[in-house]
């Protein structure tokens, strides 16, 4: 079921798309992280932030 309300869409996008992924273990980390919370690797990348509209 698609979200029609723009405010709710922005809240959902922030919750689902604003985090970093560890390239070593795949853990989800906050955007402000410099090291992985699970394995302490510094090899992090931002989540590909694209909200698909159907």
TrEMBL record:
One of its GO terms (cellular component) is ribosome. Residues 3-51 form the Large ribosomal subunit protein eL40 domain. Pfam families: Ribosomal_L40e. SMART domains: Ribosomal_L40e. InterPro entries: Ribosomal_eL40_arc, Ribosomal_eL40_dom, Ribosomal_eL40_sf, Ribosomal_zn-bd. The keyword Ribosomal protein applies. The keyword Magnesium does not apply. GO terms for biological process: translation. This is 50S ribosomal protein L40e.
